[in-house]
Amino acid sequence: MQGKQEIMINPIKRSAPVQDIDENELVVHEPKTAAAGIKAVTVSLDRGISQAGITRTVRSMLRVNQRGGFDCPGCAWPEPISGPRKPAEFCENGAKAIAEENTLRTVTPEFWAAHSIEELAGKTEYWLGNQGRITEPVVIREGETHYSPISWTDAFDLIGEHIRATTPDRCVFYTSGRTANETAFMYQLFARSIGTNNLPDCSNMCHESSGSALNPTIGIGKGTVSLDDMHKAELIMVVGQNPGTNHPRMLSALTECRHNGGKVVAVNPLPEAGLLKFKDPQSPGNLMRGGDQVADEFLQVKVGGDLALFQALGHLLLEEEKRSPGTVVDHDFIAARTDGFQEYREARSHLDWSETERATGLSRLEITRIAGMLARSKATIICWALGVTQQPHSVNTLREIINILLMQGNFGKPGAGACPVRGHSNVQGDRTMGIWEKPKEWLLEALDKEFGIASPRDHGVDATETLEAFMDDEVDVFVSMGGNFALACSDTEALEAGMKRAGLTVHVSTKPNRSHIVHGRTSLILPTLGRTDKDDKHPKGAQFLSVEDSMSVVKSTQGRLAPVSEHLLAEPVIIARMAQATLGDDHPVDWRAMAEDYDVIRDHISRVLPGFENFNQRIRNKNGFVLPNPPRDTRSFATDIGKGRFTVSPLEYLEAPEGHLILQTMRSHDQYNTTFYGLDDRYRGISGGRRVVLVNPEDLKDLGFADRDLVDVISTFKGTERRAEKFRLVAYPTARGCAAAYFPEANVLVHRDLVARESNTPGYKAMTVRFVPREEPQLS
């Protein structure tokens, strides 16, 4: 270890911060070249102890992601199924997520009385989220200026009245990935019992493109690898993701792969620290040698250039197969288990290298070098995240990735497969439980048979279509099970205006957020238990829930900490009481039984969803259980033709006109989705502010701007413009022609029609922007 680092832990800060973000305090340093290390440990402890105290922090950290403990409310990266787990089976950002939930800061009725909606509307998400846990249900009615307390009974009666007063198609039920399996199952059952499939969720805004590409090509919308496969791979490609911030425990898997002789290739427009070097704070040897290299190769691809890259890689692999027949392409696998290879081979038989280099920003030599690594690998995993899924041609890009994997037979063998890295804990489980606006007929038939209801067959609205429904005044009731829809969605100003016109908005939340402020004419905030909270107000005592991780492992989760308020209700209880107040006691579903005993929910799930047979017995296994996955388990593909499908897509990429750049959104290291833990994006060397745009120094020069210039950012799409004011340009080693700004501040620039084809995912990685100089503020 180089030098000594002083560990300073702040005392508990029971009071929420008074000051909001002051963008004038922006500080920019050189970006880091390594992730984690001792600094990650000190930050983790500081955030936990300062918000929750030593006892609550230590109790939670000892149980997070451990067998018999609770699943981290942060990312969906898996834990080892067998064998020992690390004493600290969590990352820095997981610790921050837990600290936010464990906090002893509280938002009481006095808070709402002291702060009007007008005042709160001027606060940032950072200030709102740092106020603490909401302690009691509150309501605001049309014409009122403040939220005020309401009893649980009156709140549920109000929800029931509003739902019954409208039609099912004008009710929308949104879901955040934090929701557990049992909650999600009840929630979709409630919506379908009312008569709607309006079940948008956060998947619509992140990995919907993955499902849209995977289901038709390999017959399943999930990844096909295990954590053990990551360790055994000969080659892992990490495409369009930043594991150092968004799922740091993945770095351990990547470095273990390299220790076992594998190679790692990173493909990203930004040279993120977590893709360069990992300082494992749980390995003294690793720290002594200054950390481990993560990526053997780094391809700094242009935003939107991944489709061209994988077409080029496919071409080169086929060319190498011509030179050395039988060494690259798995002909036996292709003949027995796939369809469409001949058409794919013909499409990739030629390549325009000039256009490929223009589309990717990479040289032919760089791409050829990676193709050689692919050709030599007999077990390849390709991982991806939102850098791939949020562009107009995202689905075609992912199909090209599947083509590469199919060509070399990289399914159903150790160390190989497709790996969409899900973000939020249980976002994958929510979809498994039926949270989807386009349900399959088999699911609806199973629900109808199990519960004696008549599920609606018409498809509902996804997240983008919900935005449009708000704009067209077609939403009377909007219920949000967690999440922060107003900030997570695109076209921010239009969405907020539409939300304010809705009849009733209901937010099941733990902490204040922007969606509570841009509320409907009547609005309810219903405070709920978090992952770390004890859920023991039931006739049969304490209950537990379950979640599904990014690799299809289902496991239990149970909090043990005392809630900060006696008025909090568990999410299954909230859903049951909403349903009872809306549908009445003569409804065929026994909502009360499910709310009182979660085993009842799991028994229903076991009879409705394939793969969950004997759910209650299997979930009590300390390691949980793995859901069936045909490509991984049997090298089979449950597509409409019963085979894996090669596809052919045209070349497509993003190119900005002169004077413009292609802008992508990103998260800071002190952020998870729309939650801001702090203001220190230390790996990128940015702290104190968030309204920044990272631009290559050469692009700044060509555009006539300088580092730290203050500008308005103008996006252009279909002849319309959107403006984000007061952003600071920061010279940064981004790919040429590209820029990056933080989500959700830049969401206002995303036109609602800028989406990925087929998946309808917002184009957060596809904005065409220009900069307009802005006068510097005068110092008083």
Automatic annotation (TrEMBL):
The protein's UniProt keywords, in alphabetical order, are: 4Fe-4S, Iron, Iron-sulfur, Metal-binding, Molybdenum, Oxidoreductase
Keyword set includes Lipid biosynthesis: no
Gene3D superfamilies from the xrefs?
3.40.50.740, Dimethylsulfoxide Reductase, domain 2
According to the lineage, what is the superkingdom?
A: Bacteria
- Where does the Molybdopterin dinucleotide-binding domain start and stop, copy by copy? 661-766
Name any cofactors this protein relies on.
[4Fe-4S] cluster; Mo-bis(molybdopterin guanine dinucleotide)
Q: Where is the Molybdopterin oxidoreductase domain?
A: 133-424
Question: What PANTHER family does this protein's entry cite?
Answer: PROTEIN YDEP (PTHR43105:SF4), RESPIRATORY NITRATE REDUCTASE (PTHR43105)
Q: Which family does it belong to?
A: Belongs to the prokaryotic molybdopterin-containing oxidoreductase family.
Q: What is this protein called?
A: Formate dehydrogenase subunit alpha
**Organism expressing this protein natively:** Arthrobacter mangrovi
